[in-house]
Design goal:
43% of the residues lie in helices and 14% in strands. The chain is an alpha/beta fold and 410 residues long. Helix 7 crosses helix 10 and helix 8 crosses helix 13 (350-362). The chain is globular. 47% of the residues are buried.
Length: 410
């Protein structure tokens, strides 16, 4: 793992000294992070990098993960889709299982920290263990868009959410009206991680040879879980439109997370859409494939993120950090990362994605300028050091004041 001093050449010594000054007020404070998986997905990736640095800053940080049977993760995936607004058949049995597994985890885990950060809906039931006299501060870190949820699921979850001291969102538009402090903390990437560090051209070429991806044509890549909301079939449709006029290849590099049971089903549909096309490369990568993702993004002429719904979409910042031109849907947190025609191109359809990709492939100078602008935008806004600062400020604010600030009304 990297030390804080190693970030100074990237963000400046002032940013690192600010972190140390803030953390001095929180020295020894116990912090507990809880989510639903250690491998796969952006939340686990962020915690893997953040927790050691918070410890280096002097906080007493633990990271625990809830456990449950496969049926529980089918329920939480349905809840995830419903909170994004997708119609899902929800039954009382699903609510009962969610409660049962949540209460089992509440009995198993030591919920004794001063600051408890509960990530996403899966562990929400843990807040039932909160007592009135406890000085602990509970934070619900919501990484998804709950602005237009399916009412049945939101009505069920809302009583748990209201027990928290604060709700944290990635984007202002994701917020709900809630009687508690509401804060915005954008996610981040770690520029020194295996996924984002600099790679030599020979190393990139070696990885692509091992993956069976030729570099004889420009490569369009989308990196994401095989998830309906990431629209991999739509990416294939866009690629085929591009290929009519520009010779290129498509890479869909995905993986699975232990809390996402739909991956295999979606992958099957993607394989059906690809139809053994030799210019479409479907790569099912394990969660430890950071080097492979790094090389694929750096080798790409265009990186695409054609999501239908999105929490934040950190694969966009990953590509921008590598100065790659990005074509992405204008959903979720993507417009914070891609400033249209400045750090990438925002689109709204298969046709729009194809048109934007052709623009970039036919104008390499324009594509290079967008990529360079994107890298600087990420350096200023979406690196791990900024994320650490936001968490430290949140803990300081929650620990020192009972004032309530409303992001979206009360």
């Amino acid at each position: 793992m990297s030390s804080l001093a190693e970030y100074e050449p990237i963000v400046g010594s002032g940013a690192v000294e600010e972190l140390r000054a803030l953390a001095a007020h929180l020295a020894g404070k116990p912090v507990l992070m809880v989510n639903s998986t250690r491998l796969g997905g952006g939340v686990a990736e962020i915690l893997n990098r953040m927790v050691p640095l918070l410890k280096e800053l002097g906080l007493d940080v633990r990271w625990d993960v809830i456990e449950g049977p496969p049926a529980f993760y089918k329920v939480t995936k349905a809840f995830h889709n419903a909170l994004h607004g997708k119609p899902e058949p929800i039954t009382q049995e699903m609510f009962d299982l969610f409660l049962e597994v949540g209460r089992q985890n509440a009995r198993r885990l030591a919920l004794d920290a001063q600051f408890l950060v509960i990530h996403d809906p899966q562990p929400l039931v843990l807040v039932e263990k909160r007592t009135r006299r406890s000085p602990a501060r509970w934070v619900w870190r919501c990484h998804i868009d709950v602005s237009r949820p399916q009412p049945q699921v939101w009505t069920f979850l809302k009583p748990f959410i209201r027990k928290f001291d604060a709700a944290v969102y990635s984007v202002p538009a994701f917020a709900q009206r809630l009687p508690m402090r509401q804060l915005i903390i954008a996610p981040s990437i770690d520029p020194l991680s295996e996924k984002n560090r600099e790679l030599a051209p020979d190393d990139i070429a070696a990885v692509l040879r091992r993956l069976g991806v030729p570099q004889d044509r420009p490569i369009i890549t989308q990196v994401s879980r095989f998830d309906y909301l990431k629209d991999p079939v739509g990416v294939i449709e866009a690629f085929r439109r591009v290929r009519r006029s520009v010779k290129c290849r498509l890479v869909l590099a995905g993986g699975s997370a232990s809390d996402d049971p739909e991956g295999e089903e979606v992958l099957g549909r993607v394989r059906g859409a690809a139809k053994d096309d030799p210019e479409i490369h479907l790569l099912m990568l394990p969660p430890t494939s950071d080097l492979e993702i790094n090389a694929l993004q750096r080798a790409s002429a265009v990186v695409m993120q054609k999501s239908l719904k999105e929490g934040f979409g950190l694969t966009v910042s990953e590509a921008l950090w590598k100065a790659r031109p990005v074509v992405a849907s204008a959903v979720g947190g993507i417009p914070l990362q891609v400033k249209h025609r400045y750090s990438g191109l925002l689109v709204h359809s298969v046709e729009g994605a194809a048109y934007a990709a052709k623009q970039l492939l036919n104008n390499p100078a324009y594509a290079k300028r967008l990529g360079e602008n994107g890298r600087e935008h990420v350096r200023q806004n979406f690196l791990l050091t900024r994320h650490l600062r936001d968490y430290l400020l949140t803990f300081l604010t929650l620990g020192s004041s009972d004032d309530v600030l409303y992001l979206n009304g009360g």
